């Protein structure tokens, strides 16, 4: 036991010591002057002091033990059950809860930091690929004199890939401040969906894929954030177009909106290459591309991860099913505001 701890103990018990001796001195004086003058004051004071020392020694042992247990908390060691006072137990329990809370928060922050570091590292690695392709295209053009139109077309394709990767990474970083940019509102799902489909008109034509929308009601309202919901749908539709592309046969993407009470289900089904069953459970993991990623160089593995995070933060249920050579279906469940309550 250090002297600092001992002096701290005396300071904490200074008021008790003062009250103890003052009260006993007053009782002794009262007995001497008003009861009997034969009372030995020094004898009484000696007894009081002896009892005081015994009591304080007992208190000192418990004080040191409590201090030791608090120090053990700082070393992340479980506190043993001992005969502490109720107040000491309450303080130790409170410190332990605070300690565990901050430990959990530190662990969560560390995990997020590690994940972000891995994402950025992998993203930089993926970004190098289209840049290397552009460099090879330019080298080949200088050596073999390839037609300018073909060179420009290949460079434009790689440029689009880089822009897409940059856009996905920006969306990922915006997710970290989701609550600052989130406004729940009643949104006309069909109008929002049509706007996104129309914005991708050129992609549909270029890839020989066309949309088909089915909805029994023109005014189905859902509770969501219009901007984040659009980001989520854009990614799902882009994937559907990319993996359904066909030069020989026209394919379709089917959009179906169904309302059942206060729930609205949006189904997006394509006629693409499908996803392996072994990959389905991992498609929402960051940078996971699976078997399709080896046949489609533009796959980054960020899109579906960002989509799943947006759906989770918006409170929408997101499910995906797929069959090889048949297609993939994504279902999103929304909470709806009934039309009668919409103004």
A few lines on this structure:
By secondary structure, the chain is an alpha+beta fold. It contains eleven helices and seven strands.
Report the radius of gyration as a whole number of Å: 36 Å
Q: What's the CATH class of the largest domain, please?
A: Alpha Beta
Q: Which architecture of the largest domain does the CATH hierarchy give at level 2?
A: 2-Layer Sandwich
Question: What is the name of the CATH topology of the largest domain?
Answer: Heat Shock Protein 90
Shape: elongated
What is the average of the pLDDT values? 79
> What fraction of residues sit in β-strands?
5-15%
Number of helices: 11
Broad structural category? alpha+beta
CATH superfamily of the largest domain: Histidine kinase-like ATPase, C-terminal domain
Total number of β-strand segments? Answer: 7
Largest sheet properties: 7 strands, mixed
Number of domains: 2
Write the H/E string, N to C: HHHHHEHHEEHEEHHHEE
Overall helicity: 55-70%
Kindly report how far apart the N and C termini lie: 73 Å
Uncertain ranges? 338-343
Describe it for me?
- It is built from eleven helices and seven strands.
- The C terminus is likely disordered.
- Strand 6 and strand 7 form a beta hairpin.
- Strands 1, 2, 3, 4, 5, 6 and 7 form a seven-stranded mixed β-sheet that branches.
- With 343 residues, the chain is an alpha+beta fold.
- Helices cover 61% and strands 14% of the residues.
- It folds into two domains: 82 residues; 159 residues, 2-Layer Sandwich (Heat Shock Protein 90), CATH 3.30.565.
Give the SSE layout:
Blueprint: H1 3-12, H2 14-35, H3 41-74, H4 86-144, H5 148-175, E1 185-188, H6 189-199, H7 201-207, E2 209-215, E3 221-224, H8 226-242, E4 251-260, E5 263-269, H9 277-280, H10 290-295, H11 303-314, E6 317-323, E7 327-336
Parallel strand pairs: 2-4
Antiparallel strand pairs: 1-3, 3-7, 4-5, 5-7, 6-7
Helix pairs in contact: 2-3, 3-4, 4-5, 5-11, 6-8, 8-11
């Amino acid at each position: 036991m250090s002297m600092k701890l001992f002096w701290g103990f005396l300071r904490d018990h200074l008021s008790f010591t003062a009250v103890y001796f003052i009260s006993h001195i007053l009782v002794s004086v009262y007995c001497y002057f008003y009861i009997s003058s034969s009372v030995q004051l020094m004898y009484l004071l000696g007894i009081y002091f002896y009892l005081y020392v015994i009591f304080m020694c007992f208190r000192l042992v418990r004080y040191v033990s409590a201090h030791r247990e608090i120090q053990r908390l700082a070393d992340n060691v479980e506190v043993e059950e001992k005969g502490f006072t109720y107040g000491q137990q309450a303080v130790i329990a409170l410190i332990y809860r605070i300690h565990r809370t901050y430990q959990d928060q530190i662990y969560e922050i560390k995990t997020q930091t590690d994940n972000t570091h891995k994402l950025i590292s992998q993203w930089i690695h993926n970004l190098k690929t289209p840049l290397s392709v552009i460099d090879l295209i330019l080298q080949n053009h200088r050596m073999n004199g390839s037609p300018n139109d073909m060179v420009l077309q290949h460079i434009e394709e790689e440029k689009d890939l880089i822009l897409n990767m940059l856009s996905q990474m920006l969306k990922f970083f915006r997710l970290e401040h989701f609550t600052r940019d989130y406004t729940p509102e009643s949104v006309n799902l069909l109008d929002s969906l049509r706007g996104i489909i129309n914005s991708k008109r050129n992609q549909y034509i270029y890839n020989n894929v066309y949309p088909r929308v089915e909805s029994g009601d023109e005014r189905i309202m859902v509770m969501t954030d219009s901007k984040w919901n659009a980001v989520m749908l854009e990614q799902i539709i882009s994937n559907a177009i990319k993996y359904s592309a066909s030069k020989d046969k026209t394919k379709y993407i089917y959009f179906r909106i169904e309302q059942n009470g206060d729930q609205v289900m949006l189904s997006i089904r394509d006629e693409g290459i499908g996803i392996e069953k072994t990959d389905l459970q991992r498609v929402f993991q960051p940078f996971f591309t699976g078997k399709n990623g080896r046949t489609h160089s533009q796959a980054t593995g960020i899109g579906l991860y960002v989509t799943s995070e947006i759906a989770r933060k918006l409170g929408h249920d997101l499910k995906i099913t797929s069959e090889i050579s048949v297609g993939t279906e994504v279902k999103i469940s929304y909470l709806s505001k009934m039309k009668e309550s919409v103004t």
